[in-house]
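ARCHIVE RECORD
Type: protein–small molecule complex
Small molecule: coenzyme A
Source of inputs: curated submission
Record status: active
Notes field left blank by submitter.
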Amino acid sequence: MDGFLPYGGAVYADGRMLAASEGAVGLIRINQPEKHNAMSVAMWQGLAEILDAFEQDPAIRAVLLAGAGGRAFCSGADISQFDAERSDANAQQDYERRTRAGRLRLGGFTKPVIAAISGYCLGGGLALAMHTDLRLADATATFGIPAARLGIAYAFPLVQKLIGLVGPGQARRLLYGGERIDAAEALRIGLVEQVVADGALDATARDLARRIAGNAPLSVRAAKLAVDAAEQDAARRDEAAVERAIAACFDSEDYREGRAAFAAKRLPRFAGR
Ligand code: COA
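STRUCTURE (tokenized, with ligand):
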């Protein structure tokens, strides 16, 4: 994500989180490279603020999340804050509450988010990646959950998310052993959707984001709602909301535009309504 701030960027969490937009694509960069982009409490809060801004901006139709510095996507929670912020179970509850905002915003975000993963993607960094819609990695990417090596534990919703992606067996392997796996292995077990050649990650991720952003926003939204709902417990999912989102597509101006563009053999121009 070179040339980031020239695209009208904004700075959050004292510059540790950066946001910008490029056409219909919102760009987020985790920017603490001297700590391999470890996430502090303020950075989780910054992420929530950026997502709020992108959610409210109708011009943004897809979001790309990456780490700065080229050596890490994110090395997890900022361990230097653990003594002050996470010293026991009580403190952990408060820490969880303050950092949850970012994860919840990502979970409830209505536009697709793509993670472009280069280098370390560990612990809370992997949790962050797991909460995006699509994970692209290059061959330098390394994945792992070091919680058991630190004497802490992954939160239950994160374990559920992990099992949803890789199944209980591979989840146990990652959680119990704390081993790190490479991009090819991450692809094999379903932790990432695509691995691209070194040097091609940024362009491939941007192309994908642009392609999604060029499609009918209501169709993409309905697809996202449907997949997210299918991932949830049947008792908790809002199937009616999925049905409404699907129906909205068939009543939309964009559906008319899609048909007209097909008939005229031209590219559609979707308005998101
Ligand atoms: N939180 C805070 N600081 C971190 C960090 C984290 N999650 N990950 C790395 N850093 C810091 C290191 O302490 C080091 O700081 P220093 O230069 O002041 O000593 C700096 O980033 C560079 O890390 P270093 O360990 O020297 O780099 P490396 O290439 O040898 O190893 C990692 C990189 C990511 C494998 C290693 O730093 C690591 O294991 N980090 C912790 C990962 C983790 O446990 N995450 C889960 C947290 S819940």
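CURATOR ANNOTATION: The CA atoms of residues 144 and 180 lie 4 Å apart.
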